[in-house]
């Protein structure tokens, strides 16, 4: 009897919306239980055509927790020149963090949401990819940098005086216009402006 295979549902967004950015990514990828590399190099399993991306930028690494049958995953940063935001945490070169069921990841302008649907198979996993036309992670005045070595102070991914919404951001549908034609974000800004007056 076959054991159910772990499924990773990976949604990707890049603000340029260039078809070349995700041109080398299939809609589905079957992979063994070795680390799954993300980067712009030819050895990357998830190959993104974004110039500021490292050849090996990060990896999704499957492992088995003691006493647990399903595969678990951690995300490891492999880039010396850039940082990776994962669920509100900043990872630098060779730092890693365990993944939960839904994970929000941002790096080099790319937004990625990884959903883990665990199966019992330790030999293989399947990645299904979705390319989003709209942002996956909403942050106020995001300030990502890919050259953190030159920055003396680490900047949070939100603007000064603002709080993070659900750590790095919160996963939601794009704001929908209301009957008056204004989005929820526009209404919130107007409300804040009225309080200041």
Q: What would your notes on this structure say?
A:
Residues 148-197 are annotated as: Disordered. InterPro entries: FHA_dom, SMAD_FHA_dom_sf, TIFA. With 197 residues, the chain is mostly beta strands. It has a single domain (6-140, 144-149), classed as Tumour Suppressor Smad4. It contains one helix and 14 strands. The chain has a seven-stranded mixed sheet with strand order 2-12-1-11-10-7-8, with no helix packed on it. A five-stranded mixed sheet has the order 4-3-5-6-9, with no helix packed on it. A two-stranded antiparallel ribbon has the order 13-14. The termini are far apart.
Record keyword descriptors for this entry:
197 residues, mainly beta, 7-stranded mixed β-sheet, 5-stranded mixed β-sheet, 1 helix, TIFA
Largest sheet: 7 strands, mixed
Low-confidence stretches: 140-177
Helical content stands at: under 10%
What's the level 1 CATH class? Mainly Beta
In CATH terms, what is the architecture?
Sandwich
Radius of gyration: 18 Å
Structural class, from helix and strand content?
mainly beta
Oligomerization status of the protein chains: single chain
* CATH topology group: Tumour Suppressor Smad4
Strand content: 25-35%
Task: Set down the secondary structure blueprint.
Elements: E1 6-13, E2 28-32, E3 36-39, E4 46-47, E5 58-64, E6 71-77, E7 84-86, E8 89-91, E9 96-98, E10 102-107, E11 110-117, E12 124-131, E13 137-138, E14 170-171, H1 184-196
Parallel strand pairs: 1-12, 3-4
Antiparallel strand pairs: 1-11, 2-12, 3-5, 5-6, 6-9, 7-8, 7-10, 10-11, 13-14
InterPro entries: FHA_dom (IPR000253), SMAD_FHA_dom_sf (IPR008984), TIFA (IPR033621)
Protein name: TRAF-interacting protein with FHA domain-containing protein B
Domain FHA: 37-105
